[in-house]
Amino acid sequence: MTEHRTRVDVGIVGGGPAGLMTALLLKRRGISAAVIETRTQEQIRHTQRAGILEAPTVNMLVEADVGSRVLTDGHEHEGTVLSFDGIQRRIDFQALVGRSVWLYPQNEVFHDLATAWQREGGEIHWAVTETTVEGIDTAAPQITFTDAQGQGRSIEADLIVGTDGSRSMCRKLIPEDVRTDHFISYPFAWFGILCEAPPTAPELIYANSEIGFALISQRNESVQRMYFQCDPDTDPEEWTEEAIFDHIQQVLGVDGEVQLKRGPIIEKTVLPFRSYVCDPLSHGRLVLAGDAGHTVPPTGAKGLNLAFSDVRALVPRVAEFFTELREQTPSAVVETPEPLRQYSRTALDRVWKAQNFSYWATNLLHRQPEENPFTHKRRRGEFDAITQSVHGQAYFADSYTGWSD
Ligand SMILES: Cc1cc2nc3c(=O)[nH]c(=O)nc-3n(C[C@H](O)[C@H](O)[C@H](O)COP(=O)(O)OP(=O)(O)OC[C@H]3O[C@@H](n4cnc5c(N)ncnc54)[C@H](O)[C@@H]3O)c2cc1C
Questions:
Q1: How far apart are CA 261 and CA 199, in angstroms?
Q2: CB of 268 closer than 6 A to ligand 1?
Q3: I need a surface site. Which of 35, 48, 57, 230 has the fewest CB within 10 A?
C-alpha cells in the first residue's frame, strides 16, 4: 500500500547519468523532478563502464555546474591510434576537426552528478524495488515503488522520463503496435580487464590483427583498462593473467613498438555486443533517454555520449511542453504532445548516425567468424583507405569526437 505521495513536474525512473543530468538541467529551468534508482549509490559509484567523453558531454557537465573535476582530473586526448597487424597510425583529432575527447570514467561522472543533485536538495530514492509506472496515456501518470526502508511510495507527475538503462521497463510501456524495436546482436564480445599498472600508451589504441581486436585504454596513473575480442560465452575465469596479456600483446604485435605494461588484474568482465533502437522515444506522457531508448556496441565510445545528447535534445522540449501545458485546459486522455514527438525525431536522427559509426567501426576492427585471407586483407584495405587519407581520417575524427547538434 502506498504510504507516501510526492507531486513533481517530472518523475524520472533511473538514476544513471541520463536520469541525473535530466533532473539537474530541468531544475535549472524551474521544472521540478524526483528520481528513483534500483541500485545503491555505492554500487553505481564502483561500476566500471564508459570512459571517453565527447566535447559536448564535457561542456554539459561544466554548464550543469556539477564541479570542474572533469577538467582537473580528466585527461584531454587530442588523438587516438588505430593499429592493424602491428602497423600503428595516429588520428590527430585536433588537427583534423579541431576537437578533442576526454578520458574521465563514467563512475566519476555519476558521482559528480549525484553529488550535485543531492547538494541542491533534489529528491532521489536509492535502492528502490517493485517499480511500476502507470497512466502514461493520461494527464496524470505516476510511479509507485517500495523505498529502501520498505515503505510504499508514489510520485505523481505531468511527465515520466524513462532513463532506466538497456533493460528498461519504461520502454515496454510503449504499446507494441506503436513501437518498433530495431535490434541486432554480434557474434563476438569484449573481454574487459582492469589492471594495476602504469599506462602502456598516452592515448587509446584500437588494434586489430588476424586473432582479433584489442583496445588499450587508461584510467589513471596506476590502474588501466584493456579489452580484447572474445566469444560471447567466454568464462572470464578460464583466462589466466599471463594468457590475457600475451593475447593482447599478440594483437598489438609481439615485436612492435607498443609493449604492454602488465600488473595484477583486479576485474574481469565479458561485455556482449548489441545494437538496439526503440522508435519512437516518446509516447503519451512518457519519454525515453539514454540506454533505455538505444544501445550501441562500445567500439565507437558512443553510449554515454548519446545518453547526454538525448538530454540536450530533451530538456528544451520538456520546457516547451510545460509552457504549452500551463496554457491548456486539462483533459483526461492525452495524445503525445508535439514537443515530445519532436524530441524523439531529433534524438533518433543522431542515434542512427551513432549506430552507423559504431557498427562500421566494430566491423572494421573485429575479426569476423567467417574470416579468411580475403576478408582480412579487405579489412586491411579499408583500414589503409581510412588512415592513409586525410579525408578518411577526418571522417573517423569527426564521428569519434561527436558531431555538433
Ligand atoms: C563495460 C561497458 C563499457 C562501456 N564503455 C563505453 C564507452 O567507452 N563510451 C561510452 O560512451 N559508453 C560506454 N558504455 C555505455 C555506457 O555505459 C552507457 O551508454 C551509459 O551508462 C548510459 O547511461 P544511462 O543513464 O542511459 O543508463 P545507465 O547508466 O544504465 O543507468 C540506468 C539506471 O537505471 C537504473 N534502473 C533500471 N531499472 C530501474 C527501475 N525499474 N527503477 C529504477 N531504476 C532503474 C539502473 O540501475 C541504472 O543505474 C559502456 C558500457 C559498458 C557496460
A1: 7
A2: no
A3: 48
